[in-house]
Amino acid sequence: MPGDNAESLFGNRFLTQEVPTESFPDGGMPPTDAMRLVAEDLALEGDPQRNLATFVTTWMEPEAQRIIAENLHRNFIDHAEYPISADIEQRCVRMLADLYNAPGPTTGARTQGSSEAIMLGALSLKWKWRQRREAAGKPVDRPNLVFGNDVHVVWDKFCRYFDVEPRTVPLREGKYVIGAEDIEPHVDENTIGVAAVLGTTFTGHADDIGGINSFLLELKEREGIDVPIHVDGASGGFVWPFLYPDSVWDFRLEQVRSINVSGHKFGLVYPGIGWLVFRETDDLAPDLVFEENYLGKTDATFTLNFSTGASMVLAQYYNFVRYGREGYGYIMAGMRENARILAEGLKATGDFDLIGEGEEQLPLVAFRLAGDRNFDEFDLAWQLSAERGWMVPAYTMPPDAEEVKLMRALVKQTLSREQINRLLEDIKTAHATLTEKGGTHPRERRQTKTGIGY
User: Is the pTM of this model over 0.85?
Assistant: First the structure.
């Protein structure tokens, strides 16, 4: 029998023993063993570089990674001890306000992601609406929020958590975003705001924010009902300013009062970091701001979370000063070009139909199978994963377009032209394999999630 130290010489005890999964372990283990235990579990996960479902950043430069690693211990919320981190947050807010054409002094905050930013932005809509109603001596018990079924689930969560009636606009085949004509029947004096999406997770397109703004201005002029817009720019807030600078969707529109964006998506930062920016300081409801002083100085806090690391704020600032408008524009243009190559290659096969071809769009390709066959998009996604390890999601659209099945390939900074070519060939091969088999896989059908990363 090997000596007692054999496991430390030739392996570790979890080579033949079960790992802790249920009860809290009685004793510890050497750090190398703990590291190997976790690493061996993670080795079974998918490759992030082949994950074309997630919008979340999966690569950063070594210099950015160093900034993150060296500041993981820094608690961002402790402004008394870490005032530079707090200052850098506000630099980022001002830069975003400039990027989104805010007319003057404004305010905003970093968040854990767009989910928190949306909760805060929508709460401010509700509080400001209540303020206006109380000043006019009107009831405040029936607030509603209008949005399309193309939104992320966080909007439904907000309505449920904070007692607001959701007035959702259904989609239909061939129309996967909303405009003024869609929201008009739903808006009234109890509407706290309209949520408009800049880059949906389903097809990558934007709601007609300009048209919605025009309708709301007309409504305000005609009936005196002032309904603001919150732009959910989780995905598109770092795309449209650089790829479509002449597209007017931001604070250049009078009714756009707040915008959220995910730094950990096309802001090119690891999760989790999001941003909320207001048009003007007065658009933030003051009742949502809290004063606290137990960390050493009196600070105003405007977040749902409290303690969090400063690393991702610093990493976001690194990206802003590292890339600037020119760098972000170059990166976004490269992703769009590779998405175009992939789309053209899929179309040339005759086996796929593209969704929203030629429109303003995130750098992704949304497509569906063309013609009759004995398999569907879910089978193709499964085959593509099984054969080559690509994670390309298949999903159904929201009501009332749930009969429509799509696939979506997100083209990010890490996908080179060679990888795009390889992906295209692998999709063709997976399609050919299913065609030869003449049927579907004997498996349980499951819809894949599309709104990852808020």
Answer: yes
